[in-house]
């Protein structure tokens, strides 16, 4: 039997893609010694020099979080990384008063 599809709360059809906002029961975060963490990867590229990437460490799907926790625990030879459910909700004012428009924000000419 197939797994049920996600509940779609909103969708927006753009020129080259569809953006869907999906319902989730909870958010999950990678924690180190019980505290949520961020992650940064530094790489060197001959053409671009030093490149920094910031991989995701919070997920709407617990399985993705668990996979990263297992990878990090193996990489650092520890068991201090855990997958924790985020429970507290606090709404903040982003200061954005107009609808967000990607094309205008990035100055892309169409």
Secondary structure elements and their pairing?
Layout: E1 8-13, E2 18-22, E3 27-32, E4 35-36, E5 41-45, E6 49-53, E7 58-59, H1 62-75, E8 81-86, H2 102-105
Antiparallel strand pairs: 1-2, 3-4, 3-7, 3-8, 5-6
Please describe what this structure looks like:
- With 110 residues, the protein is α+β, with helices and mostly antiparallel strands.
- It has one domain (8-88).
- It is 16% helix and 34% strand.
- It has helices spanning 62-75, 102-105; strands at 8-13, 18-22, 27-32, 35-36, 41-45, 49-53, 58-59, 81-86.
- Strands 3, 4, 7 and 8 form a 4-stranded antiparallel β-sheet that branches. A two-stranded antiparallel ribbon has the order 1-2. It has a two-stranded antiparallel sheet with strand order 5-6.
- Strand 5 (41-45) and strand 6 (49-53) form a beta hairpin.
- The longest helix has 14 residues, at 62-75.
- The protein starts with 7 loop residues before the first strand and ends in a 5-residue tail after the last helix.
Sum up the structure in keywords.
disordered C terminus; alpha+beta; 110 residues
Briefly say what this structure is:
With 110 residues, the protein is an alpha+beta fold.
Number of strands: 8
Topology pattern, helix = H, strand = E: EEEEEEEHEH
| Rg for CA atoms | 18 Å
Tell me the span between the first and last alpha carbons.
44 Å
The overall average pLDDT, rounded, is: 86
* Large-scale geometry: extended
- Helix percent reads 10-25%
User: Given the structure, what is the number of helices?
Assistant: 2
Sheet-strand content, in percent, reads 25-35%
Total domain modules:
1
Structural class, please? alpha+beta
Task: Pick out the low-confidence regions.
Answer: 102-110
Largest sheet: 4 strands, antiparallel
């Amino acid at each position: 039997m197939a797994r049920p599809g996600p509940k779609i709360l909103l969708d927006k059809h753009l020129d080259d893609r569809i953006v869907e906002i999906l319902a989730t029961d909870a958010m999950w975060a990678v924690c180190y010694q019980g505290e949520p963490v961020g992650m940064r990867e530094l790489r060197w590229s001959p053409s671009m020099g030093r490149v920094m990437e910031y991989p995701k460490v919070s997920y709407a799907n617990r399985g993705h979080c668990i996979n990263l926790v297992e990878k990090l625990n193996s990489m650092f030879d520890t068991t201090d990384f855990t997958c924790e459910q985020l429970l507290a909700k606090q709404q903040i004012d982003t200061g954005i008063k107009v609808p967000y428009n990607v094309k205008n924000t990035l100055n892309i000419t169409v």
